[in-house]
Design a protein that fits this description.
The chain is α+β, with helices and mostly antiparallel strands. Helix content is 33%, strand content 34%. It has helices at residues 4-21, 29-32, 78-93, 107-115, 151-162, 166-176, 222-234, 250-257, and strands at residues 41-46, 49-59, 62-69, 97-103, 119-129, 141-145, 182-189, 192-202, 205-213, 241-245, 261-272.
Length: 274
């Protein structure tokens, strides 16, 4: 568990790094604030000042990594030191794979992943809804709360739509079910359960992710109708609605844009061989 001083130090360093490069770091604060172990976070302090931080986020045997170094202390080997410690920790856990998260416009981040020969894997986009736009409701498509009976289908959707292994899909779902403020919803079209979507409310904002439609029901307009339904429900209490998506092509992005979302920044993921 991270103490309040550590959390405050991380936030202060994040603000400095984001302002310096004009980027948005994805530090997964919902996970940082609810750590249950002490082997996922690595710090570099000098004279009581936090100069470097690296975090690991586990989803089954798959891990993600995000970190930062104070702009005035880059080139001093700080991140290299933190990365080495993280790799030793992952080796002890028999981790299966590692994805390194780099803000799309971060020059320092790109330099690091090139230096360690990490391979580009995919890009995730954070999009924000423009109030009043893109909502087209349909009586044939709606959502309902997920039940225990839906767990097998949720796991299958993560495997089929996101390419996850069964082990990773099961572990991620188990973790999601414990997160505060998170709603796991099933998407129904004409009485058939055809997909899933998750909504998390944090400090007056709604975050939508884990959006998946069964491949057998894709390209029928169900995804757009389901997204409109969720946005309509969330817009009853906030205009700050965000969507995290890994869009592989312009057609996929178009779906979200026609639903009233606009890209505000992107995160590139690189796969590193352990």
């Amino acid at each position: 568990m991270l103490n309040q001083k550590q959390l405050d130090d991380i936030k202060a360093l994040q603000d400095i790094c984001e302002t310096h490069e004009g980027i948005k770091l994805k530090l997964n604060w919902d996970m940082l604030q609810h750590r249950t172990a002490d082997h996922d976070d690595f710090f570099h302090y000098s004279n009581k000042n936090l100069l470097g931080f690296l975090a690991l986020y586990g989803f089954g045997v798959q891990y993600e990594l995000c970190g930062m170094v104070h702009p005035g202390h880059r080139g001093e080997g700080i991140f290299k030191e933190l990365f080495k410690k993280a790799m030793i920790s992952l080796k002890d856990r028999n981790a299966g794979s590692l994805l390194i998260n780099v803000p799309g416009t971060s020059g320092s981040g790109k330099t690091f992943v090139e230096a360690i020969d990490a391979d580009y894997d995919f890009t995730e986009y954070e999009m924000k809804w423009e109030p009043g736009s893109g909502i087209t409701l349909s009586k044939s498509v709606m959502t309902r709360g997920m039940t225990e009976d839906d767990i097998p289908q949720c796991i299958s959707l993560d495997i089929d739509c996101f390419g996850q292994s069964r082990t990773d899909a099961e572990a991620m779902l188990k973790q999601m079910l414990t997160e505060q403020g998170l709603k796991s919803l099933m998407i129904e079209a004409d009485g058939q359960t055809v997909g899933k979507i998750r909504v998390q409310r944090i400090k007056g904002q709604s975050f939508i992710y884990g959006f998946a439609i069964d491949p057998k029901y894709q390209r029928r307009g169900i995804g757009r109708k389901a997204l409109s339904y969720v946005v309509s429900e969330e817009s009853k209490w906030t205009d700050d609605i965000f969507l995290d998506v890994a869009a592989e092509n312009s057609h996929a992005l178009k779906l979200y844009e026609t639903s009233g979302f606009r890209t505000i920044y992107s995160q590139d993921y690189y796969r590193y061989k352990l």
